[in-house]
Amino acid sequence: MKIAHVFVNFPSASQLYNLKLINRLESVGIHCEIVTFSKKTKFKDFKIISVAHDRYNWFVYVVRSIYNFKLFKLYKKTTKLNHKRAIYYFGRFSILLKINPNVVHVHNVQLLQPSFLHFLKVCNFKCVVSFRGGDLLVRPLRSQKDTYFVVHVAEAIKNIHFVSNNLKMSLIKLKPKNINSFVIHRRAETDNIIINNNTASNTPNILTIGRIHWTKGYQIALKALYLLKGSGIQFYYHICGGYSNEQKDELNYWIAQYELEDNIIFHGHLNSKQIDNLFSLATIYLQSSLSEGIPNTLLRALHNRIPTVTTDAGGISEIFQDNIDGFLVEKGNPEALFMKLKELILNQKLQDQIKNNSNILISNYQQEVNMYKEMYSEVYSN
Questions:
Q1: Fewer CB atoms inside 10 Å of the end CB: C or N, the chain?
Q2: Total domain count for the chain?
Q3: What is d(CA 199, CA 283) in angstroms, rounded to the nearest whole number?
Q4: Residues 164 and 269 in one domain
């Protein structure tokens, strides 16, 4: 079976999961072609095909449109685009006709604008689209137009892949018609096991990795840490994530409000190896999210058996084992986060017990691959 995986860009330095997934699919005989909407990237493991526009490609667009004239004519009629714009889009997307996959897997919902969505329908491709946390937990809140986009894409593609049951239910609440749902929980995006080096320090290192965004609940985390500091416990809080100037300004405001300047170590955006180094220093991983699908960095923390305190946002409770991986608390509750952080920090025996436990929910890579194979087979056969 041949699958065309369509991304905004690939590979992403901050999102290694898709790279690991495709390697695993290839290892069981599923041939994967990578199509990206960004400029062509050289990558040693995979040939990456770009549909990004290049002004020198106009001749190629015309040739492809002539070669597939019947489909092009139908595409132009369906989209109601003028001749030039129809050639522009059809010529770019028609690389998929050359690939001729059994299934097209679109990994980024925002790619499914009308020009691409109509192309997939006109060419009668069997498709599946992955919906992430931001697509269903945040975007529909912006406007009725955004809600319509989400529902329209779901109904047009029909086959929807989710990383959690919580996301599946979030889409169902929007009442799309006639969709097929596939829930496949993510496994950890790294196969590396880090060596814990935090024993050299008597001061606990608390770590959060995630972009500086309201959905990650940093204000809640900082209030919990303010309470922790007030209880007499000393600590360092490491924050790692990308940000805009406005987001960093807001974070700094709350750090100052809670008088945590001496406790915070801000690392900004780091690559995967640097993140592993941070994990090796962490005493506790803190996930204070208000809205989530399944956070990749939480999976990595669980994979590396770092004692964790997390909220129950989104699909987290589907992969987190309360009292085995650490503590699960109600989202948006800084007092509950504080109490569980304090309990974990003061109980070295419990920390050691968590490190020696295993999370069976995120470690079965073969089961994950089998579920993807079954999804692709079902999409192709329907």
A1: C
A2: 2
A3: 9
A4: no
195-243, pLDDT tens digit by residue?
666 655 689 999 999 999 999 999 999 999 999 999 999 999 999 999 9
Q: Are both 74 and 179 inside the same structural domain?
A: yes
Burial 245-272 (b: 16+ CB within 10 A, else e): eebeebbeebbeebebeebbeeeeebee
Residues 173 and 212 in one domain: no
Is the model's pLDDT at 106 over the cut of 70?
Answer: yes
Domain that includes residue 221, residue range: 198-356
pLDDT confidence band for 85 (50 / 70 / 90): very high
Top pLDDT among 192 and 381 is at 381
Longest Cα pair distance anywhere in the chain, in angstroms? 74
Q: State how far the alpha carbon of 331 is from the alpha carbons of 231, 288, 337, in Å.
A: 22, 7, 9
Paired tokens of 68:
């597939």
- Please indicate, yes or no, if residue 192 is contained in any of the structural domains: no
Q: Are 67 and 164 within one domain?
A: yes
Q: Give the separation between CA 166 and CA 121, rounded to whole angstroms.
A: 28
